[in-house]
Write a structure and sequence with these properties.
With 142 residues, the chain is mainly alpha-helical.
Length: 142
């Protein structure tokens, strides 16, 4: 229940864990690319500041959204749904491109991402996971 000190149900914990794996899978390689670009001087000057700031914002927003879902904030769950649907569309586009160019190993990440994210959304939006986000009787509207 939102605002309570009770731990979320196991469906929510599982969904957040799956989404955490996806955050790591998607963001790790980009962060590694930025780090190696800075160390090899491919990225220099003011671009370093922007790339590092971008990485901190992406990681912070992604993990922060998962924390807000953990605390039972319904708007965070719905925002995550919108962002997940957009990201699933992007991953399907990447998979189609990899398939069309016969780069079959490049299909692994999009397929894993879509599978984990779809299952996490299933756990968040269907009972009993969705019950964690329902307002308690008598709770004031914020």
């Amino acid at each position: 229940m939102p605002g309570s000190t009770i731990s979320p149900p196991r469906e929510i914990v599982t969904a957040i864990s799956l989404m955490g794996v996806n955050v790591f899978l998607i963001n790790f390689f980009r962060a590694l690319s930025v780090a190696t670009g800075i160390l090899s001087s491919r990225i220099s000057g003011s671009a370093v500041f922007y790339k590092v700031t971008d990485e901190f914002l992406i990681w912070g927003f992604s993990l922060g959204l998962l924390v807000l879902i953990w605390y039972g904030l319904n708007w965070a769950r719905w925002l995550n749904l919108v962002l997940s649907v957009l990201n699933i569309g992007l991953m399907i586009y990447r998979a189609v491109g990899a398939f069309a160019t016969q780069q079959y190993p490049a299909l692994i990440l999009p397929i894993v991402y879509v599978g984990l994210e779809a299952f996490a959304l299933y756990l968040l939006f269907l009972s009993p996971g969705r019950l964690w986000f329902e307002r308690r009787e008598g709770a004031s509207a914020a």
